Fold this sequence. Notes:
This protein is 42% helix and 16% strand. By secondary structure, it is an alpha/beta fold. The strands form six sheets. It has a five-stranded mixed beta sheet with strand order 16-15-14-17-18. Strands 4-11-10-9 form a four-stranded parallel beta sheet. The radius of gyration is 26 Å and the shape is elongated. The N and C termini lie far apart (59 Å). 49% of the residues are buried.
Amino acid sequence: MNDVFELRSADAAGRIGELRVPQSDTVVETPALMPVVNPNLQTISPARLENEFGAEICITNGYIISQSDYREEALSKGLHDLLDFSGAIMTDSGSFQLAEYGEIDVTSAEILEFQYQIGSDIGTPVDIPTPPEAGRERAADELATTQDRLESIQDVDTGAMLVNAPVQGGVHTDLRERAARDARATGLDIHPIGAVVPLMNAYEYGKMVDVIAAAKRGLGVASPVHLFGAGHPMMFALAVALGCDLFDSAAYALYARDDRYLTVRGTERLPELDYLPCECPVCVAHTPDELRAMPDDERETRLAQHNLYVSFGELRRIKQAIRRGDLLELVEARARGHPAMLDGYRALLDHADQLEKEDPASKDAFFYLSAESARRPEVRRHHERLARLSVDGEILLTEGDTNAAYDESWRVVPPFGPLPRALSETYPLTAEVPDRMDEQAYEQAAEGVRRLVETNSDGEFTLAHRGWPESALARVPSAVHIERLDAVDRQ
Ligand code: GUN
Ligand code: ZN
């Protein structure tokens, strides 16, 4: 068990948790967004982040502070006074800057110690963010360096400060999984998944999902996970569903600087907007023309405020979805905003077995919303259950009513497949499905039939369907008699 992180609710691999931050004696509810605070350039002051937007935690860069005019002030006053922020503050180590400008003359231990001395709540060692294009060998070399540094900081006095143990490995999923296992073995507190920014910037959401899923396999469920540099609200639901707990957003400010307007369905450009598709105070009070007519710095502030309202709003929506058990429905809605997000959702479903292990066994709702819903973890779980049920005699699997001519008659419901009558009022038979089903739903129902029939080879099965497509019927084992429902009803 991780002793600073407690899980409260779960849905898919997503969770609501509480991160205890001893240094400033606060508790942060996760999933949480940490707005990036640049001490040199405060688009929105940290006090406003806290009071107007409800930020419980923010992130700033310890390395940049150590190299700046603020260095002495940070050391004497402490980070919380310097920034005027009473919540938790995470500091980054400058890894990104270092990767950009090459070697530096301070050690990982020194940078971490500086973060402790200025009163950071969560410090970060100097990991190496391996870019996606790096081959295996380079990724493995850099990982070894990151791991050495994680071990080299074990002797640094960090008091009550929590410490990040980042997970790198580029796009090599076996390296990511191993890095995650090693990072967890350090016993450090939080695990950021690093170097995903280039993947997100290139809209490679499928690869991003594979990287996160690999890291999660190595980390297990107990550790809090931060997705480093992830700040676009359109991907929060997807990342949360995979088990990410912390996000940091520089995007709200960086995007505002060049007139980009964040939405949960993607990015808009202010010069191209005729209307403001949002309910936040900024968008209710202004038209696009009014924003465009503002002086640059005022427009930038307004856009940054809008971007923050949208980002924090999406996190509240995600937490409510976790509570209600319809997080995957939200992910599915977001997947409709952009083809790259759809790719991300499809990649997530490739890991349905992994998600199924953490997904709660019973929920109120399952809404079938697209062909992708047929591959959800709940469907997998039902198929696993079918493979453990035993039946014998003559069994009718039917989309219609019971039929006395058989020893047993079970309902067949796409996409789940056969269900014993006794389960007909329980989840997932309570799922809401449309009347007009797609092929994938029938194919998954056929898969359910196959799982049940395979473990009950002594039974004699008849499937009575209302007109399944060929692709589904082809998946039904040949031992099963297949009839149209109206033919069986006449018997
Ligand atoms: N910010 C965004 N990505 C990264 C990363 O991989 N490592 C660190 N330290 N900071 C980041
Ligand atoms: Zn708005």
